[in-house]
Amino acid sequence: MPAARLLLWLLSLASIAFALSALAAKTPPPVWQPAVLLLGLATLATLGTLFPRLEIYTRVAQAGPAGSKRVALTFDDGPHPETTRRVLALLAEHGARATFFVVGQKVERYPEVVREIVAAGHELGLHGYTHDRLYSLRGTSYVQDDIARTQRAIEAACGVHTKLFRPPVGFVGHLIAIAAERAGVDLVAWSARGLDGWSGARAERVLPRLVRNLRDGAIVMLHDASEREAFVPVSLELLPDLLAHLRQRGLSAVTVTELLSSA
Question: 141, 185, 240, 247 - which has most CB atoms within 10 Å?
Fold first, then answer.
């Protein structure tokens, strides 16, 4: 069991024990004692949502095994007829494969681009139907329906059924964990992230962040489109240098499934 999840369980048990002892006591405990326990629980629960790599609520794929000399490049928020095709061209030039976590609504808008992704030998994953920024606050029924709707959009576009799921914004709360399990999908996070999805991101800052965490077995999170199609992600500018860096280190870029299957 991950250490953060164990800590959450211990804090929860401690809170229950404290509540029972307080009920049995003749005088109420100092207010600060339950406040500290509640603050600890709330902090840990929030961190678990914001940082899925802690695996507080469920298992989340965040890296593959070391030793295979492989990394998985992943791209979020597409497809887009211009930027996704530019990414596909760069990947083809370097003989790299990747996993594209696509938005269902965009899949329906640009089905031909989705077919091109698959035809080029890349993998598809789920990234929500509308990229709802409040996704982590939604109920389990909402998330399950959203996953199924996105799966149907992909299947209609290219005939592929995928079970890889990266929630919009990447947050994984307790309800998303439950919904993902019920929907039979596998949650995928990352171990290297450059924060390239912001309009103000700059290649000279994003690339060093990526390289710093680029280890054998890493899952790298990038963007092949902007969320609202309002700008060109900086990943397109830095991708040639990143792919060259992989080659220099003897690392090959594969899909998430290929990376995890080498375990």
Answer: 185
